[in-house]
Design a protein that fits this description.
alpha+beta; about 55% helix; globular
Length: about 80
């Protein structure tokens, strides 16, 4: 499995500047092979990782599950 390291702060700033979602970027990276995307902090410490699926259907399932989990967590802050 190919590993891709991404500086999280720069990545999310670029998404904000381009007014796009990480899911759109992930969709463009799909090529039929799973990839491990590793998000790093400024000191190259691993913040989290995501296994990019080999197909768009699985990516959509992941997006929906992420959205649900995020909404659930945000509800606890209200």
């Amino acid at each position: 499995m190919k590993k891709i390291e991404i500086k999280a702060e720069q990545f999310f700033e670029l998404l904000r500047l381009k007014d796009t979602s990480m899911w759109s970027v992930f969709a463009q990276m799909i090529d039929g092979e799973e990839k491990e995307i590793i998000f790093l902090d400024r000191g190259d410490k691993i913040l989290f990782n995501y296994i990019l699926p080999a197909n768009a259907e699985k990516l959509e399932e992941d997006r929906k599950e992420f959205s649900k989990q995020f909404a659930d967590k945000m509800a606890h802050f209200s």
